[in-house]
Design brief:
Layout lengths: L2 E4 L4 E3 L4 E2 L6 E2 L1 H7 L2 H9 L3 H12 L3 E2 L3 H10 L9 H8 L13
Antiparallel strand pairs: 1-2, 2-3, 4-5
Amino acid sequence: MITIIETDSHKIEAAGTIVGPTPIRIITVGSFKRRFGADVRKLVRESTIDAILDLKEDMDLALCIDLDDEYTVAGVNTLGPNGLGWLDSQGVADMLQDGTSKEAYNGVL
């Protein structure tokens, strides 16, 4: 199919089929950090656990966060019920859900 129009959230193809919304899987670092609740942000900030220090360092050095990146997923899962228990299963899912147009990273990859 040939794409006629594509926006942040939808695409119209030559056959007239509307396809969308396009998932946003790369978001800004600030948007990702804001997904943590205040309690978890404080725990991450004050942590001395190596896995959390690695996650924090990766976020501090990153230009953007790829929600499908294996290290991002592993870091979030470390915070979840099968790790430290700082996030419940829904919290893990919320951290890794599709981004919004306001959260989207629009810079150079």
